[in-house]
Amino acid sequence: MRKTKLFFISCLLLLAFGPGAFAQQDDKLLQLLKDELNKEMQELKKQENPPYHMNFRVMDERVVNISANFGVLQGVADQHTRTLVPQIRVGSKELDNFKYNPMGSPTTTRTSSSMAYLPVEGDNWEEAIRQAIWAEVESRYEFAVQSYQQAKTKSTVSVADEDKAPCFSDAPVEKYYEAPLPADRQTIDKEAWEKRLKEISAAFKACPELQSGSASITFKVLRTYFVNTEGTEVVQNRTYARVMLSASMKADDGMELPLNKDYFAYELKDLPSNDLIIADARKMVEQLKALKKAPVADPYTGPALLSGPASGVFFHEIFGHRIEGHRLKGGGETFKKMVGQEVLPQAFQVYCDPTMKEYHGTKLNGYYLYDDQGVKARRVDVVKDGVLHEFLMSRVPLDGFPSSNGHGRTSGGGDPVSRQSNLVVETTAPYTEAELRQMLIDEAKRQGKEYGYYFKSVTSGFTYTGEGGSLNSFNVTPLEVYRVFVDGRPDQLVRGVDLIGTPLSMFSNIMAAGDTPSTFTGECGAESGWVPVTASSPMIFCTKIETQRREKSKDLPPILPAPDAK
User: Fold this and answer.
1) pTM score
2) Which end of the chain has the least Cβ crowding within 10 Å, N or C?
3) CATH number of the domain located at residue range(s) 10-293 in this protein
């Protein structure tokens, strides 16, 4: 299951020559990692099951979170961590310990694996890092040998795999280095933001019906190191700042009614003013009041319009996860045998491009220059003129797709697998919103429907790709949904709608797209952890979608009124 939440990232680009080159030579952590990797590799080569490939990935991360609720400061957290994840591949590229298990250590939860915590400062920090590396390599090597033995056994007693590709592919050796960010780009004025967030969240106090009304900021500075035994060395920086508004209300029948809005920037100075954010908070309150009075929608099948942000999440869930290469080696394999076939109308183009930092004026948080396997990122034209051409690949190859295109991604203690980056949907035959709306009405009449649906905003989604016996399906959670009546009545806001379905059925019902792209900014969770993504799309028209009624809470609204605002 994969979910989408709001987030964003950025990178600082420096050339590997001039001042940056001198900084690279002085980077003690980089030199230590290279030395330890070589030493550990040489020692493990003496074992009965020697590794044929190793790499180290280090994440030096500082995160500051500040939150306020109804004008009151709720918390301030400032955390600086440095973690290391080694990957050890035992066996050969044809059959290794990752054959049946994409993670290199036992997972405590679906998206959590072990990692070594390294000191960020202090006396004898180098010796402490060496000790931590040694312990984590020891642990992961033992698990690698165990997994390799199991893979060898399983490969001899199981039915032959349909996919004959090896477990690991070759990749060019890369050398890329970014100097550390200057101090002024790694700090946030916490006192100033505490004051701002209290002022913003105080706007929610005007509505006593609200159950929550919060404003928060997350400021993150991430520096990653990647070295492998092939000679690749990649050091990158990422920064982001995000302000989030969250408010919720409970309807009289117990249904939870949440609304969210976020603002993000590469730099703190580029976030919007308090006046703008407070105005949006007040709009959220009015929208929640309208949702509370809105009727609950019954299950529905029929035509629909999806706004740009809604269709972005829609494509991320129903299509994006099914073009991630490693998912096509087993399980659902929805689009595996459809390369060269038309999967969308001829006017549609779909690509993933992690090298794009901005699209139509919107910053893209799926931006990066090198993936988490040290492979240079590149644009992948997945669909051209409606025809499927490529998949998103890590260094786990697939029949017909023998090499990575820079989409091996992970976070935390996970190992990289193929993941989405900046997913973009475009059309060469755009329609205006008025034209698409008329298509919706005409189609609803043709199907004998009283109305069609317009999905204006969504909060998240999840999908099952048909792996491990799961149903090949998706679920997108809308926040604002309207009935568009065929007889000309004003649109009607409804609540309690979940957009559901199966991917091939939904794809066959996509007919047209609009002329104005929008971007949904999020973070996507899967087996290799949570990674930042975006999905950009214009409005789309579908001749048939399916919805179900959202589950309602059994708890009624509070009996006691909220305290008076002061």
Assistant:
1) 0.89
2) C
3) 3.30.2290.10
